[in-house]
Specification:
The protein has two domains: 5-68, Winged helix-like DNA-binding domain superfamily/Winged helix DNA-binding domain (Arc Repressor Mutant, subunit A), CATH 1.10.10.10; 75-123, Dna Ligase, domain 1 (2-Layer Sandwich). 33% of the residues lie in helices and 17% in strands. The protein is an alpha+beta fold and 124 residues long. The strands form two sheets. The chain has a three-stranded mixed β-sheet with strand order 4-3-5, with no helix packed on it. The radius of gyration is 17 Å and the shape is flat. It has four helices and five strands, in the order H-H-H-E-E-E-E-E-H. A hairpin with a 5-residue loop joins strand 1 and strand 2 (65-68).
C-alpha cells in the first residue's frame, strides 16, 4: 500500500490519541492540517488502514463505527449512556475445542457494553 500524505496524517492522528473516533471526527481533525481533504478520502484511507491491520474498528450500540489506532491485543467497553469507548487488556484462553476442531483463529475482538463508572455514579 502506497503511503500518501492524507493516510499518514490520519494514522498520525489516531496514533497520537488513546480515544476512538468516527470518520467524521477524524475528517474534522485532519482538515486542520490538510484543508482540502474530502470526507470520501478519509473513508477510503480508513478502509485501507483497516484492511492492512494498521487500524481496527469498534462498533457501538447505535451502530456507528469508530476507529482505533492502537492495534495491540485488547478488548473494548462501550458505555451505553455516554457512548465513550474504553480499552481493556484481558488474558484470553483458547476457546474450548476451537483449535482441536481444526479451526485456525486469526484474531479475536470482544466488545463489552454497559455503564461506565462515571455514568453509574451520576445515576445514584
Amino acid at each position: 500500500m502506497r503511503n500518501t500524505r492524507q493516510r499518514e496524517e490520519i494514522l498520525d492522528f489516531l496514533h497520537s490519541k488513546r480515544e476512538h473516533y468516527t470518520a467524521v471526527q477524524i475528517y474534522d481533525a485532519v482538515r486542520q492540517k490538510i484543508p482540502d481533504i474530502s470526507l470520501g478520502t478519509v473513508y477510503r484511507n480508513l478502509g485501507k488502514l483497516v484492511e492492512s491491520g494498521e487500524v481496527v474498528t469498534v462498533g457501538t450500540e447505535d451502530r456507528s463505527l469508530c476507529y482505533d489506532g492502537f492495534t495491540f491485543p485488547h478488548d473494548h467497553f462501550v458505555c451505553t449512556e455516554c457512548k465513550k469507548i474504553f480499552d481493556f487488556e484481558f488474558e484470553h484462553t483458547e476457546p474450548k475445542g476451537i483449535i482441536s476442531s481444526g479451526f485456525e483463529i486469526e484474531y479475536e475482538r470482544t466488545v463489552y457494553y454497559g455503564i461506565c463508572p462515571i455514568c453509574k455514579k451520576s445515576k445514584i
